[in-house]
Amino acid sequence: MEIALLLEITDFQQAVVYSPQTKKDYSVELTADQAELYQSMLESIENDEDVYVHFDKENMQLTYLDSE
């Protein structure tokens, strides 16, 4: 599992993330609840802040990265 930058949530309930390790963007399918959660995270941050997530590239899954 690696840390990735959450770029956007599409209208098709997919998250677009950027992996610094591979220097590539990936699209990850989400449930409606996950899409809503990640979209609200993106909307609540200030312009100069980024949202990072745990990215499991093998299973194409995201997990919220705690800021603690």
How far apart lie the N and C ends? 18 Å
What overall form do the CA principal axes indicate? globular
| Number of self-contained structural domains | 1
* Unreliable segments of 5+ consecutive residues: none
State the CATH topology: OB fold (Dihydrolipoamide Acetyltransferase, E2P)
- Biggest sheet statistics: 5 strands, antiparallel
- How many helices in DSSP terms? 1
Strand order of the largest sheet: 3-2-1-4-5
The CATH architecture assignment turns out to be Beta Barrel
Give the rounded overall mean pLDDT: 91
Give the CATH class: Mainly Beta
Helix content: 10-25%
β-strand percent reads 35-45%
Radius of gyration: 11 Å
Order of helices and strands: EEEHEE
Protein name: YebC/PmpR family DNA-binding transcriptional regulator
Keywords: DNA-binding
GO molecular function, one term: DNA binding
Quick structural overview:
One of its GO terms (molecular function) is DNA binding. The protein has 68 residues and is of the alpha+beta class.
Descriptive report:
- This is YebC/PmpR family DNA-binding transcriptional regulator.
- It comes from Marinilactibacillus psychrotolerans.
- One of its GO terms (molecular function) is DNA binding.
- Keywords: DNA-binding.
- This protein has one helix at 32-44, and strands spanning 2-9, 14-19, 24-29, 52-56, 61-64.
- It is of the alpha+beta class and 68 residues long.
- The protein has a single domain (2-64), classed as Beta Barrel (OB fold (Dihydrolipoamide Acetyltransferase, E2P)).
- A hairpin with a 4-residue loop joins strand 1 and strand 2 (14-19).
- The chain is globular.
- The two termini are 18 Å apart.
- 16% of the residues are buried.
- The model has no long low-confidence stretch (mean pLDDT 91).
